[in-house]
Amino acid sequence: MPLLFSYGTLQEESVQRSTFGRPLAGEKDALPRFEQSLVKIDDPRMAVRLGKTHHANVTRNGREESRVSGTALEVTDAELESADEYEAVFSYQRVAVTLASGRKAWVYVHVRSAE
């Protein structure tokens, strides 16, 4: 079963239910060599609808001491595709990472950060 590392809204049960139709099992973990960052929401209507001006994001900085805390969520392949659709609306893409635990996982980063 694939692992999806969440540092943001996918950790919320309400988002899991609306995206996957169920709450997900997961374990706390961390993403080494990344730091938290923010992405401005350019569409003012979207910002009002979401009640915020920025999305959470992570950016690879390569520094061993940098870590982003989050949750490694167990998902099916079909659920991973649903997450792709959910995240694509906000210009996030899935990239492969190795977590602090040594487990392989997917994480979503904003396309400008992934380049």
Describe the structure.
The mean pLDDT is 90. The chain is globular, with a radius of gyration of 14 Å. The protein has helices spanning 13-20, 44-50, 77-88, 111-114; strands at 3-6, 26-32, 34-40, 54-60, 67-74, 92-98, 104-110. It has 4 helices and 7 strands; from the N terminus they run E-H-E-E-H-E-E-H-E-E-H. Strands 2-5-1-7-6 form a 5-stranded mixed β-sheet.
**Which overall shape is indicated by the principal axes computed on the Cα atoms?**
globular
Distance between the termini: 27 Å
Q: Topology as H/E string?
A: EHEEHEEHEEH
Task: Pick out the low-confidence regions.
Answer: none
Question: DSSP strand (E) fraction?
Answer: 35-45%
Compute the gyration radius: what is it? 14 Å
Helix percentage range: 25-40%
Number of strands: 7
**Largest sheet: spatial strand order:** 2-5-1-7-6
Largest sheet geometry? 5 strands, mixed
Task: Report the total helices.
Answer: 4
Q: How would you classify the helix and strand content by structural class? A: alpha+beta
Mean pLDDT: 90
Q: Summarize this, please?
A:
With about 120 residues, the chain is of the alpha+beta class. The protein has helices at about 15-20, 45-50, 75-90, 110-115; strands spanning about 5, 25-30, 35-40, 55-60, 65-75, 90-100, 105-110.
Present the secondary structure layout.
Layout: E1 3-6, H1 13-20, E2 26-32, E3 34-40, H2 44-50, E4 54-60, E5 67-74, H3 77-88, E6 92-98, E7 104-110, H4 111-114
Parallel strand pairs: 1-7
Antiparallel strand pairs: 1-5, 2-5, 3-4, 6-7
